[in-house]
Amino acid sequence: MQHAPYWPPVPPIEMPPARTVTVPDRGEFFLRDSGGDGEPVMLLHGWLATADLNWWPAYQPLSAAGYRVLAIDHRGHGRGLRSQAPFRLVDCAADAAAVMRALGLGPAYVVGYSMGGTIAQLIGRDHPDVARGIVLSGTAQHWQEPRARREFKLLGLVGLMLKLAPQVTFNAGLKRSGITPNERTAYLQSELTRHSVRDVTEAGRELGRFDSRPWLSSIEPPVAVLVTTRDELVSPRRQQLLAQAANAAVFESPIKHIEVGRPGNGYAEVLLQAIASLSAARSVKAA
After folding, report:
1. 83-108: buried (b, 16+ CB within 10 Å) or exposed (e) per residue?
2. CA nearest 36: which of 7, 11, 78, 65?
3. Are 119 and 74 in contact (CB under 8 A)?
4. Is the pLDDT assigned to residue 92 strictly greater than 50?
5. Which residues of 13-39 are buried (b: 16+ CB within 10 A; e: fewer)?
6. 4: how many CB neighbours lie within 10 A of its CB?
7. Is residue 243 pLDDT above 70, yes or no?
């Protein structure tokens, strides 16, 4: 019997140093931390991703620009916290805020992509003291439209498939996204298998329940929105509506949703512009 080829899961770059941050009454959290004395930037990854899968192409550009780069794995994702409590987006926001407070690094620029963007919005609402400014990208105010609601109803079936055959299910999802399992994607496959099936399934349901329309315009930290203009999962129109609701400066990167995790697409350079705009916005507000 011929077995599938084995490829070692080697990271595409040398990642920033990893550390475990213990927060009393919350638990242990996996964090990438580039170190240094630069202004901190906390990166929040999307659903079914990890900090590394989502952000590795941005680590070096942000560090080279002088920022201290922080990237957390959300609970149930990758090396993130495993809790007996149900997965809740508000807990992810509280986790990130607690880690920054424990390290004495706030306020930071908080950057959220996709699901990470919903978490960043909740940080702006519930933990404004840790956010110098917020960049939202590839995300929206809600997923209440009919198409999204239909897709979220399928999550129960997806969860069952992940429990029965996680590797097969993840590989099928990769192929659907145009990614063929091979030597170059072995690390990606390895990272996906770190997830808690229960938590990532519930995370999808949480996204279906999320709606920031009643309160987004009232958050204190300045907001910038980086629109992924070829996004097939979160339409550019919905991202523009998010920017209008948040009274945010708008920046654009011509990538598809999943391409944020691919190098050489120019996204990191636009992200640097968006972060810089937040510093200017704070100066104007202070004046």
Report:
1. beeebbbebbbbbbbbbbeebebbbb
2. 65
3. yes
4. yes
5. eeebeeeebebeebeebbbbbbeeeeb
6. 8
7. yes
Q: What is the mean pLDDT of the chain?
A: 89
Cα distances from 46 to residues 19, 74, 77, 111, 182, in angstroms, run: 20, 9, 10, 11, 23
Domain boundaries, the chain: 18-142+212-286
CB atoms under 10 Å from CB of 247, counted, come to: 12
Calculate ∠ Cα 268-273-276, nearest 5°: 125
* pLDDT the model gives residue 7: 78
Query: Under CATH, domain 18-142+212-286 is a member of which superfamily?
Result: Alpha/Beta hydrolase fold, catalytic domain (3.40.50.1820)
Structure tokens at 171: 């590989």
* Secondary structure (DSSP) of 159-193: HHHHHH-HHHHHHHHHHHTT---SGGGHHHHHHHT
- Contact by Cβ (8 Å): 51, 41: no
Report whether 221 contacts 265 (CB < 8 A). no
How far apart, in Å, are the Cα atoms of 255 and each of 43, 110, 112, 116, 137?
19, 21, 16, 17, 11
Q: How far, in Å, CA of 148 to CA of 172, rounded?
A: 20
The dihedral through the CA atoms of 50, 154, 90, 85 has a sign that is negative
Amino acid at 266: G
